[in-house]
TrEMBL record:
Pathway: Metabolic intermediate metabolism; propanoyl-CoA degradation; succinyl-CoA from propanoyl-CoA: step 1/3. Pfam families: Biotin_carb_C, Biotin_carb_N, Biotin_lipoyl, CPSase_L_D2, PCC_BT. InterPro entries: ATP-grasp, ATP_grasp_subdomain_1, BC-like_N, Biotin_BS, Biotin_carboxylase_complex, Biotin_carboxylation_dom, Biotin_COase_C, Biotin_lipoyl. This is Propionyl-CoA carboxylase alpha chain, mitochondrial. Keywords: ATP-binding, Biotin, Ligase, Lipid degradation, Lipid metabolism, Magnesium, Manganese, Metal-binding, Mitochondrion, Nucleotide-binding, Transit peptide. This is one of the 2 subunits of the biotin-dependent propionyl-CoA carboxylase (PCC), a mitochondrial enzyme involved in the catabolism of odd chain fatty acids, branched-chain amino acids isoleucine, threonine, methionine, and valine and other metabolites. Propionyl-CoA carboxylase catalyzes the carboxylation of propionyl-CoA/propanoyl-CoA to D-methylmalonyl-CoA/(S)-methylmalonyl-CoA. It comes from Caenorhabditis latens.
Length: 725
């Protein structure tokens, strides 16, 4: 294996990678320019290749494909909707074609317009990315008729594996381990309930053509089976244009482990090691890692061999992923095969040094894979955190929209890779997936890769939209996750009341309060100076020689009354970047650039290095981002605190009498009208955001007073949809 890895590097040095960094997974790179990519196989520029390809996708995956194509010397064509005209993937491509309006059904899913763009630009092949048309057999077939190559598997393989009902039969014949379930299509809600009872609850209801967590629901009883069938069927029709449903046994407490495969058109097939994707919410992955800490070498070999058996059984000829559910006894069962490039492919590239997109382009052209199974390495460990524009405090992540007013990726951290399709000023809209970036870290071992992820999350600057970094940051430091004790039920088990933010120890609370007080003291000291005058020096000395007294408080939980602390701040020898803070009888020494204007503050607290951010400032309050979670710290002069007792508290809204929009989105169904009697828990409205269906229910039994929305309307977060008497 060591010899194989050495051979990889030798090949790479003869190819694209003149830079040594290009052959080392985990080295920071300028990904946006496509100058360096994760590969140890290298690029042979004398090898025949496509002259021009079209990418039938958007966002980060379009940017990812463009980067490899550029490195190979292949020209690229981007397609885009009208609202995506200024997107990063459009700017990176050599050409760009608008294919319609913002809704995906009117642009990125319009096969006729994509085919017209191929004809108009002379593109020889199309890379579909993931989602959209990536597993659409009709699109792949139409491309072939038009004389263009589909950069993915052949239409038959997509059909065989994309249909979950049919794929189960093929997998069984290929001697792949299977989950008990109903071997057929579910016709309606009644049949769904009957089959679910026969299998035994809990069951998984999912779309036959689904993927990416869409069109999937777990049902524990008849009521959930009916609702899950209806909502999943609607999601499947919206996302895939195919609403056929199936039901199978839901394995409780499983791990979700998948095997990356790579095949060519000459009968060669490889497995590129596994990825663990057990950290999920609503069946969508949050954090992935490669390899899995749960998989020993012999199990890895068996999983890989079964994945390759399945691929060969359907004549597979591109990159794909075979997904398994794994129980506590390390038994693994076939779940599905994704016949496309997977979202989390970068972590496999990190541990193998193989650029999967490059190999997809080569295979589509007709070349053989350049390596054998024995040459596939497993070097180090890699994690991927999916950074979303989501509110993690609402169901572990409900979508958020807005414009990125400040955006800085942590590319300076060792071993970091950022796959993103946005930049400062980009708009996160209701029309598309709210993914901001796939933040990837690579290290020599699991602990180093995790530590790098922690540092990268602390240094990631995102302003303008709500994001899920608080949740990601808390997970990567949580004890169970650190030890690898995870299942797909990890989130509800670790956060049974939902994510509430990082819980600070008493010492950490003092650190946050002391830091905020030191920042406020420096601000006041600067305000007391006379700048550009002869007495500037004397006023500086006087301002930074004073002791500043505050009353400071930090709410530990939302709605809780915070304990007030008397705080005194003095600057050591008048140095604005060295503060001594007295709080609760303890002294906290803080040094570093104590500036309110920096996007990231890297400081020393009692000799310990910490990274914080200032994400909000207003009179008497500083919001400190610490360990990923924002903490609103009150820092007030003693006199100001005396006046707070005269301030009236804001009246609380009775949320049981209203149904509020939990996020921006579009109304799909309104099931009531004014005057209707409803019972607690009854579904009143269904809304869609970022292609996910969300059912909104009554908070109490009562009569409908008003319905403020109609089907098709777009709504903002917090908007009142239905009022009850």
């Amino acid at each position: 294996m060591l010899r194989a890895a050495s051979n990889f590097r030798a090949v790479a040095n003869r190819g694209l990678a003149a830079s040594a960094a290009a052959t080392r997974p985990g080295v920071p790179r300028d990904e946006r320019e496509g100058k360096e990519i994760y590969t140890t196989v290298g690029i042979d520029h004398n090898e025949p290749k496509f002259d021009k390809i079209l990418i039938a996708n958007r966002g980060e995956i379009a940017c990812r494909v463009i980067k490899t194509a550029k490195a190979m010397g292949i020209k690229t064509v981007a397609v885009h909707s009208d609202v995506d005209s200024n997107s990063l993937h459009v700017k990176m491509a050599d050409e760009a074609i608008c294919v319609g309006e913002a809704p995906t059904a009117k642009s990125y899913l319009r096969v006729d317009r994509i085919l017209q763009a191929v004809e108009d630009t002379g593109a020889q092949a199309v890379h579909p990315g993931y989602g959209f048309l990536s597993e659409n057999t009709k699109f792949a077939a139409e491309l072939e008729k038009a004389g263009a190559k589909f950069i993915g598997p052949n239409s038959k393989a997509i059909l065989d594996m994309g249909d979950k009902i049919h794929s189960k039969k093929i997998a069984t014949a290929a001697r792949v381990s299977m989950i008990p379930g109903f071997d057929g299509e579910i016709a309606d809600e009644d049949m769904c309930v009957k089959v679910s009872r026969d299998i035994g609850y809990p069951v998984m209801i999912k779309a036959s053509a689904g993927g990416g967590g869409k069109g999937m629901r777990v049902a524990w009883n008849d009521k959930q089976a009916r609702e899950g069938y209806r909502l999943s069927k609607q999601e499947a029709a919206s996302s895939f244009g195919d609403d056929r449903m199936l039901v199978e046994k839901f394995i409780d407490n499983p791990r979700h482990i998948e095997m990356q495969i790579l095949c060519d058109k000459h009968g060669n097939a490889l497995w590129l090691n596994e990825r663990e994707c057990s950290i999920q919410r609503r069946n969508q992955k949050v954090i992935e890692e490669a390899p899995s800490s749960f998989v020993p070498p012999e199990m890895r070999r068996k999983m890989g061999e079964q994945a390759v058996q399945l691929a060969k059984a359907v004549g597979y000829d591109s990159a794909g992923t075979v997904e398994f559910l794994v129980d506590s006894q390390r038994n693994f069962y076939f779940l599905e095969m994704n016949t496309r490039l997977q979202v989390e492919h970068p972590i496999t590239e990190c541990i193998t040094g193989i650029d999967i997109v490059q190999q997809m382009l080569r295979v589509a052209y007709g070349h053989s894979l350049p390596i054998t199974q024995e040459q596939v390495p497993l070097n180090g460990w890699a994690f991927e955190s999916r950074v979303y524009a989501e509110d993690p405090y609402k169901g572990f992540g409900l979508p958020s929209v807005g414009r990125l007013s400040k955006y800085v990726e942590p590319r300076h951290v060792d071993g970091v890779r950022c796959d993103s399709g946005i930049r400062e000023g980009s708009e996160i809209s209701i029309y598309y997936d709210p993914l901001i970036c796939k933040l990837v870290t690579h290290g020599d071992n699991r602990e180093q890769a995790l530590n790098r992820m922690q540092e990268a999350l602390d240094n990631y600057v995102i302003r303008g939209v709500t994001h899920n970094i608080p949740l990601l940051r808390d997970i990567v430091q949580e004890k169970r996750f650190r030890t690898g004790d995870i299942t797909t039920k990890y989130l509800p088990e670790v956060y049974p009341e939902g994510f509430q933010g990082t819980v600070l120890t008493p010492n950490e609370q003092e650190t946050v309060i002391a830091f905020a007080a030191a920042l406020n003291a420096r601000k006041l000291a600067r305000a007391n100076q006379f700048l550009n005058q002869n007495k500037q020096r004397s006023t500086h000395v006087a301002s930074f020689s004073k002791t500043y007294k505050f009353v400071s408080s930090l709410p530990v939980k939302e709605g809780e009354r915070a304990t007030e602390h008397a705080v005194e701040v003095s600057f050591v020898n008048g140095d604005a970047n060295k503060a001594k803070v007295l709080i609760g009888g303890k002294t906290v020494d803080i040094s570093g650039n104590l500036s309110l204007s920096l996007p990231v503050n890297s400081i020393e607290v009692n000799g310990e290095h910490i990274t914080t951010q200032i994400v909000g400032k207003r009179a008497g309050e500083i919001t400190v981002l610490y360990k990923g979670t924002p903490f609103k710290v009150k820092v007030l002069p003693e006199q100001a605190v005396k006046y707070l007792q005269y301030m009236k508290e804001k009246a609380k809204v009775d949320l049981s009498t209203v149904v509020l929009s939990p996020m921006p989105g579009a109304i799909k169904n309104v099931n009531v009208k004014p005057g209707d009697m409803v019972s607690e828990g009854q579904e009143l409205v269904v809304m869609e955001a970022m292609k996910m269906q969300n059912s909104l229910h009554a908070g109490k039994t009562g009569r409908v007073k008003a319905v403020n929305v109609k089907v098709g309307a777009t709504v903002d977060e917090g908007e009142v949809l239905v009022e009850l008497e």
